[in-house]
Amino acid sequence: MWRIRAIPEVCIGCGLCRVWCKVEHSDSKNIHKAFKPNAPETISCVELEESGCESFAMQCRQCDEPLCAYGCITGAMTKDPDTGLVTVDKKKCVGCWTCILMCPNGVIKRDERNGRSAIKCDLCKDRGFPSCVEHCPNDALVIEESPMNPLAAHSAPLSGSSRGDENILFSEEVDDDE
Amino acid sequence: MKIEEHQNNNPSKPAQRKASDFKIRSNRLSEFAVQRDYDRCIKCEVCIKQCSFDVHYRDEEDDLIKHRPENCVGCHRCAVMCPTAAISITPNPAQYRAHGSWSGEHVKDINRQAETGGVVLTGSGNDKAAPVYWDRMLINASQVTNPSIDPLREPMELRTYIGAKPASVKVKDGKLASEMPPQIKIQMPILFSAISYGAISYNVQKAIAEAAEELGTLYNTGEGGLHPDFYKYKDNTIVQVASGRFGVHPDYLNAARMVEIKIGQGAKPGIGGHLAGEKVSESVSITRMIPMGTDAISPAPQHDIYSIEDLRMLIFALKEATNYRVPVSVKIAAVHNAAAIASGIVRAGADVVAIDGFRGGTGAAPKAIRDNVGLPIEFALAAVDQRLRDEGIRNQVTLISGGGIRCAADIVKAIALGADAVYIGTAALIAVGCTLCQKCYSGKCNWGIATQNPYLAKRVNSEIAKNRLVNLVQGWSHEIKEMLGGMGINSIESLKGSRSQLRGVGLTSEELDILGIRPAGM
Amino acid sequence: MSIATSIEIDAAGLYYKELNAQIRDAVSEGALKVVLKNVTGQRYIGTNLYGTVDRDTLRKLEIEIHGTPGNDLGMFLDGPTITVHGNVMDGSGNTMNHGRIVAHGRAGDITGFSARGGEMFIKGNAGYRVGIHMKEYGDMRPVMTIGGATQDFLGEYMAGGVVIILGLTLKPGEAHYCNHVGTGMHGGMIFLRGNIEPHQIGTGVGMPELTDKDAELLTNYIAEYGRLFDTDVSEIKLEDFTKLAPLSVRPYKQVYAY
Amino acid sequence: MNKFDYLIIGNSTAAVGAIEAIRAAGDNGSIGVVAHETEHTYSRPLITYFMAGKVAEENVYYRPGNFYERMGVECMFGRQMKSVDVEGRSVLLEDGERIGYGLLMIAAGGSPIAPPIPGMDRPGVFFMNTMDDARKAKGWLQHNKRAVVIGGGLTGLKTAEALANLGQEVIVVELAPRVLAAAMDEACSELVRQVLVSKGIEILTEVQVTRIDGCDDSNDVCFATLSTGEVISCDTVFMAIGVRPRIELVKDSGIEIGRGILVDRHMRTNIPNVYASGDIAEAFDPLFGGQRVLPILPNAYIGGRVAGMNMTGKEASYNVGMSVNSVNFFGFPFMSAGFATQEEGDGFKVFKKLDGTNYRKIVTRESKLVGMLISGDVERAGLMTGMMRAGVSVEGMEQDLLDGKLGLICLPKDVLEERIHSSGRNWQ
Fold first, then answer.
1. Which of B406, D56, D361, D367 maximizes the CB count within 10 A of its CB?
2. Rg of chain D's alpha carbons, rounded to an integer?
3. In the predicted structure, residue D427 carries a pLDDT above the cut 50
């Protein structure tokens, strides 16, 4: 599965990640049209964090234990057992924003453009490759590719039968996999 | 000890405050014009964040991004970073009245000095249109009589050994029986020239060191000391001993593959250097071993070297300090009597002579010096090589030339003129991102290269920079091999000093004589 | 294999390279004291000891020189104590890091050039540009005590460290003869005993009052001078000292047009 | 006797959490689910949306239609558990069938509190607890137009909102002096009141409905009499006073109960092979520092998941359960977490900022963030719950928190490092 990771040491705080995220999540997917004065509001799923000289970009980490999905009252937010992507089903989302309240990284946004729905980093799945990573001028965003943790599956099908022995989340005894 | 600023107050003089006390009255025209295509501008503010010279700003009232062209230094960072290519930086079309003698630059510099009473500073290499002799030399190639070599399929040797070579060697049982002076094997005749940490940021020096390691060549610390983190690159490090003696101590000297005594720098022959106190950050202070915030002053001369005899003393002091393990290099700026000086240096016992031409780079130099003092490296190199040959001591040193090496062809020509290897500095920085805006001395380098400001310095990702440097040198190495192959030569050794491979175009007979080459067509 | 912790080397007729190699070998083999006899101008004594033994051992090493060592005595010195029973020539303590040089005689030019640490004691006069570009860093601070007087450009470009000039070789009432003292100085301090005129001092150098810490430092070094050279220092009064210190750590700030 | 490796009582969020955890762990054991409702698993908070016609029926379901099939679960819906035999590891259903289990999880939720008001049984009186309730009310409302909602808590107000959206005249009757008294402080509940009133909802506080009467010609609801003596005409009454854990199901079974079924951090009851989670459980609240019944959906899922993990033998602990609520009325968002209603004192420090309709309040204890309340600008509110879970000191950051200016970058270096690098598995 894929995750985007920030490398604060080389993040230059330019904000191009935010710009290109907005473009990708606009209707037109065209930078000029997306930012036209009368264009519908564009939303960035990347949060550029800055403090003095330090900065980094943060977007959804596609958590193995996604609290947003666990808190979702409608079942709209799920973690895909195959891709590991945490996605929101706009048709189901009613905009209660519990996911926003649950996400410890604060990277879920409100999208009120066509009805209320949560919006979050989808790794630009329609595009094939995350636009923020591709456009980062200093490689301060990278794709981490890791095998899908079977235990991380939010709703795994019956067939998946590898029975790992590791402890997971919530556990004080847990050693993180890194 | 903390030194306090002492204020000289003269109570007898009544205080008068004029407008000029509050503000510099500038008669300068902006050097650059900023053009913003408002149809393309998406107001993302990337330009605002990227400009350390405060050119771009958001006008809240008009809800537009606007600019202050008078601040622009022409580094093009904003134009490159703008996601919609909405910005172009051009020379200001509004210029001083054209004049055949008084150029706009003269007028601007006069104003600058009339305002401040100071020495006009600049950075990077000489930007004047003095003749570049590399461009007036053409390289030979084989046709029919001496077959050319295809370097893609046949072995081609760029390996170079740095160090003094004995006049003769004894071989016994097929093995070398003479004791050789220390030698350093490098994979191509290209070394990274001296750029100190302080002049450039940590990340850039790290990238250069790592590139040298990956390429199997050497980089030079400059006179800024060796950062503790960089001791791990010691097999690829040349450390410098210069007039400031910053960070010079036994560990430093013994961490290196080569020690270089810096007498002069091509961009500013005959003068010293001052690293402004504000650039002496904590990390720079650790590296240079001086307190934070104090000026790092490199005096013009080394005060223990007032003669060739003194130079010999320092060379051997360094050999003693390193137990004769590493070659000692002496770097001089190319000046009028470079040949005689080089001869003296060789006789003083140096293993390597590095000559830096007047187009060499600098982090800060008085403009008057940078643009008017020194010699083109082509002449200096040719003269030095010839003099050492005439005196029969050419073998005693490795000759490294630097100062304005721009491409692989320059390297081939330099080696044909007599160099063993070249130093590249500005070219390396361009590979990392430098756009030659010449504001290195300001410490506000928008490309994160010539700065110690942590916000700006992060702009160089050493990993990316290292890869770019490696690519550049590998690209050049391929080109050198192609040119060698074209000449029917399969080893860089065979090209060394082979001036018959060069012909001059558009050169006077004196120039041809000095370069030791024949005119094209002969 | 055992070796005497003290070893004597007769330097007569030895080229400096051979002499220094012998010293290096002796130290490598464990000598803690090296006595050099008949030294006649051999250079770089003490320079090549890096890497012989560990740093702590190097700091205990004593080198005793009888005769006159050549230039660059103890260049890059990093630990040992060198005692010279005679004069020293130019460049003693050049770029020294740590250790001690004691000369029972006079010293040449650029004594202590660019030193970053360590101590030097010169019994008599010293030459030109003494203490030039001395530095300090962290807890490293070189201190040079000169019993006599010096020539011009004393403490030029000084960026740190302490130079103490006792002026003992001057006749009573005789003024110092060095000019351009502290030119370009931007750190450190010079304590000068005896008369000096303002025109002898470089621009940018101030004469602040002695602090209590200064007095303590001076008292200690004067006492040490007395002890090392077996000299009566009771006549030396703190009030006879002039302290010279730079007015700014950025002396050339205003030189440039930006 | 039918026997399952895993028997789950209940068919809601906690049950789903447990089922998904069991299957995610790769355990293929048999799972049986007993539920007294006949519905496929659905989202309880959505029933008011469904009633208002804002959410289509198919979207009320919490998981896709083939969920049980895909998970290999045998459903026994519309059947009520009667008792548990923890010795014999079996459950007796009301219909007399006995089902055996290897491991049991009780996630039967809560039942609505029904106050003893005369007239409660009249047609037109509804609860708002199940899909069935919502469906029935939806039909009723088609030919009625004036409703009284008893209870100004979350369910009551969401019901009122739904009713207003349907064009009903709505009167909320609340016993406490203000609405949402359990979840919000005075200032914030006033903001909620203003939002509701602006949409035409009438709110009566410090009153009760004492009786519900029909009309002369009909048994249907017609009037409600208030404790003030006032009589209001209405045609529908919703009971939304609250729910309580259905602990009567395990009475005398040997399973320890408090206000709910007491569970440890592994969601295990005092009986080793019996687990409980969801609204029925009384579990550990790390902020509160003790056992609490916290009937909120996120905790139900997480508790169910922890129970599921532990049941398959993968040790997991329930450390993140704390009170969190995110709700909006007519699009205006409100959020609360932890000690949201706490006022200054008892070792708590409280910081508040009211700017128009944007309200922010943070509560700290020993310089750690332990509670918050936000209305309006809820952007990045999760940062604060994240800080609450991580237990980081927010000393000196209080003003930034109030101004909404705080980012992840303000977290201590080690916490930040963990956030940037972690795979999101270990939110302490």
1. D361
2. 23
3. no
Question: Is pLDDT above 60 for A161?
Answer: no
CA distance B450 to B426: 12
- Secondary structure E strands in B196-252: 219-220, 237-241
Q: Could you say which residues from 70 to 89 on chain A have a Cβ atom under 8 Å away from some Cβ of chain B?
A: none
Pairing of strands D358-365, D368-375: antiparallel
pLDDT, one tens digit per residue, over D296-345 is: 999 999 999 999 999 999 888 888 788 999 999 999 999 999 999 999 99
Chain B residue closest in CA terms to C48: B321
Q: Which of C108, C107, C102, C109 is nearest to C83 (CA)?
A: C102
| pLDDT recorded at residue B291 | 85
In this predicted structure, what is the pLDDT of residue A174?
Answer: 34
| Chain A nearest C-alpha distance from B464 (Å) | 8
B459 interfacial to chain A (CB closer than 8 Å): yes
Residues B381-409 have a mean pLDDT of: 97
The CATH number of the domain covering residues in D2-111+244-311: 3.50.50.60
D328 in contact with A, Cβ within 8 Å: yes
- Based on the fold, state whether residues C44 and C150 are members of the same structural domain: no
Token pair in block for residue B6: 């002492």
| Ranges of CATH 3.30.70.20 domains, chain A | 1-59+125-149, 63-120
C22 in any annotated domain = yes
E-assigned strands of B203-263?
A: 219-220, 237-241, 258-262
**Res B6 pLDDT > 50:** no
Report the CATH number at residue C144: 2.160.20.60
Read off the pLDDT of each residue in D96-104 and give the average, rounded to a whole number: 96
* Best of A146, A155, A172 to mutate (most D CBs within 10 Å, chain D): A155
A108 and D382: CB-CB below 8 Å? yes
- CATH number for the domain formed by residue range(s) D125-241: 3.50.50.60
On whether ipTM exceeds 0.90, the answer is: no
| Nearest CB partner across the interface for C257, out of B119, B285, B321 | B119
Please state which architecture CATH assigns to domain A63-120.
Answer: 2-Layer Sandwich (3.30)
Chain B: give the shortest CA distance to residue C198, in Å. 16
Instruction: Write out the residue range of the structural domain in which residue C52 sits.
Output: 1-72
Chain A residue numbers with beta carbons less than 8 Å from the beta carbon of B46 are 14-16, 19
Is the per-residue pLDDT at B354 higher than 80? Answer: yes
Give the Cα separation of D46 and D197 in Å (integer).
22
Inter-chain contact A49–D408, Cβ cutoff 8 Å?
yes
Contact residues for B88 (Cβ-Cβ < 8 A; gap 6+): B34, B35, B37, B79
Q: What is the pLDDT of residue B1?
A: 35
Of C72, C105, C135, the residue that ends a domain is C72
List the one residue out of C11, C72, C14 whose CA is nearest residue C47: C72
Distance CA D86, CA D75 (A): 22
Asked whether the beta carbons of residue A138 and residue B464 sit closer than 8 angstroms, the reply is yes
CA geometry: angle at D154 spanning D151 and D157, to 5°?
Answer: 65
Please judge whether A19 and B463 are an interchain contact, meaning their C-beta atoms are less than 8 angstroms apart.
no
Predicted local confidence at residue A153, as pLDDT: 57
Q: State yes or no: pLDDT of A156 exceeds 60.
A: no
SS3 at position D420? helix
CA distances, C78 to each of C6, C74, D349 (Å) = 20, 9, 58
What is the per-residue pLDDT for A164? 35
User: Nearest C-alpha of chain A: how many angstroms from D373?
Assistant: 11
Contact A53 B40 (CB under 8 A): no
Q: pLDDT tens, B452-488? A: 999 999 999 999 999 999 999 999 999 999 999 999 9
Pick from A121, A171, A172, A175 the residue to mutate for testing the D interface (most D CBs within 10 Å).
A171
What pLDDT shows up at residue D404?
84
Kindly tell me whether chain A and chain D come into contact, counting contact as 3+ Cβ pairs under 8 Å.
yes
Tell me if chain B has a CB within 8 Å of the CB of C256.
yes
CATH for the A1-59+125-149 domain, from 3.40.50.300, 3.40.50.150, 3.40.980.10, 3.30.70.20: 3.30.70.20
